[in-house]
Amino acid sequence: MKVFVTGASGGIGSLLVPELISAGHEVLGLARSDASAKKVTDAGASVLRGDLTDPETLRAGAAEADAVIHVAFNHSPDIAQSVADEATAVETFGAALEGTGKALLIASGTPIVPGRLATEDDSPVADDPMAKSPLGRRGLTAQYTLALAGKDVRSVVVRLPRSVHSRGHRYGFASGLIATARRTGVSAYIGDGTQRWPAVHHLDAVRLFRLALEQAGPGTVVHAVADEGDPMRDLAEVIGRELGLPTDSVPAEHFGPVGAVYALDQPASAELTRKKFGWLPTHPSLLEDLKAGNYPE
Description:
The protein is of the alpha/beta class. 38% of the residues lie in helices and 20% in strands. Strands 3-2-1-4-5-6-10 form a 7-stranded parallel sheet, with helices on both faces. Strands 7-9-11 form a 3-stranded mixed sheet. This is SDR family oxidoreductase.
């Protein structure tokens, strides 16, 4: 299968490309710069130059491929604009793939369901306290993607947890804890620190993208969740030990604009995904990776 991958040189995409190629797929990677293009070609893929704000390039990539996997996201300070750009890109893919039977897989986030584990059956936006935030509005893009199943698109939403991690690289939400600890001199958690964050290793996540590409039917939701919920206090205590800093409770404002999100209990399950696709995470947990130390600056 020929697969067009956005974000092919990014944290997930750079690992997804070799995962797909090793399984026998051909990859066309979107690259915005010379440096990104080199990463893509070094991984064994071909390159399409352009970015998410160029609809003609996105349409050309979709037309050339049998499937599209969209994992790019612009992590700029203007989150609202980044979310809007993502929505426009996905809508461009949707229009290009309508009536073709081709696959469209997008990365999204696990929903927050107060009082219990979020599952694959939960709506991307219903009852989610993040739904009205700029980042939470990504759920609307996920809903749009799933609805493409009714227009002959094999649409799949891969929900990623709060911390997608690998040792010595990024740790998702936990990277925010590390950066704040270094800046303030205290490894902090909010309140009693019992709020839970789900997590998955990068390599386990990309394997699930491949399995979903190969097996998932139209309108499928999968959860790339290995750790259902690590308590914030446990994460802060490990980070504090590794950085040689004290651990303490702080108000949500200590973490700035993201503090309100950090304060939420947001565990998630992947039980349905594991049963349906035979996906079994095998790589280190977030706490195991954090205990190894040597955090990147």
